[in-house]
Amino acid sequence: MTGLPAAARAPVARALLVLEALNAVPIAQLGDIAAATGLPKSTVVRLLAQLAEAGYAEHLSRKAGWRATSRVLNLANGFRQTGIVVEAAMEPMRAFTRAHRWAVFLGLPQGHDMFVRFGTAADSPVALDPEVYNAPTPILLGALGQAWLAFCPPSERAEIIAHLAQSRRASDRLARDRPDLDRILAQIRKRGYSITDEAARRITWNVSRRAMEGRKRVTGLGVPILSDNRPLGSLSLRYFRTSLSDSEAARLYLEPMRNLAKQIADGVKSRQAG
Predict the structure, then answer these.
(1) DSSP 52-93
(2) CA torsion sign, 113 to 228 to 182 to 162?
(3) pLDDT tens across 229-254, in order?
């Protein structure tokens, strides 16, 4: 709890440090908070009073000490599973791109859609794809969506496909051809990776036909991020087909991509346990 550098201990940072210490235990004494934060007791007293005034802390009694109120839950409303996965993925993905040059993208499900939540295009010397964050990508046509859907539990996968079959979007049309889709997803599970469908690119990035001319040579190899045999999301490595065939991309990068996915899954578990 004392990990904030001295230069970062501005008033807001100090208040957050106290709130973290307070939120770590059901009830905390003033001395315990001071010890956990490395702040003087006089500073802790002042910050606790401010947190109490704002509704985040409550003074039970001189003997009992202080506790965090339920209002601290509001601070986590926008940072749940998605935020944890992105946080766990950012540095491993950047390290992957530094080592292998190609950009990688993180896709996470939201409802019945797949969204790109992070990518390393800015770190890649060869990336043509735009930097995209919180952008929807087709589940059935893109490597990200197919890699995730193929490894979903059967009941969840069936529910998602049934929902997509009711859609009028062109990118969801494959859901109405269930035998063909089941065959595609079974192949992905067997080989352990997906490949972006050619038709997905313009829909995925929502760019003009002219802009697509520079990207039509780029495709994606997708793998699931598995935790306890359930997919948290998926990763896609974007590469030039003029540089690599799909089989070469799988031979060279499937294992590194699986290792990257495992790093992310392990990072998520570590953060959830902490």
Answers:
(1) HHHTSEEEEETTTEEEE-GGGGGGGTT-SHHHHHHHHHHHHH
(2) negative
(3) 999 999 999 998 888 999 999 999 99
